[in-house]
From TrEMBL:
Originating organism: Mola mola (Ocean sunfish)
Keywords: Calcium, Metal-binding
Protein name, per record: EF-hand domain-containing protein
Domain EF-hand: 1-22, 28-58
A Pfam family of this chain: EF-hand_7
Length: 66
């Protein structure tokens, strides 16, 4: 990572590979596309945080209703 405050497709590709979940380039680009709200082809901290909060909320809701 280059510490610019964004995650680009190359950085995400490397991160996924490091955690043992490698994905081909086209899949990494699809992940970026799905998270990228302003269409700049990278994930900002705010975009990343929004996904994290959404996932956490889903976990809490499942715990409450199951």
């Amino acid at each position: 990572m280059d510490n610019d405050g964004y995650i680009c497709d190359f950085e995400l590709h490397d991160m996924l590979k490091e955690v043992g979940c490698p994905k081909p380039g086209y899949m990494v680009r699809e992940i970026i596309k799905g998270l990228d709200r302003n269409n700049d082809k990278k994930i900002s901290f705010e975009e990343f945080l929004a996904v994290g909060l959404k996932l956490h909320l889903k976990t809490v809701i499942r715990a409450v209703f199951h």
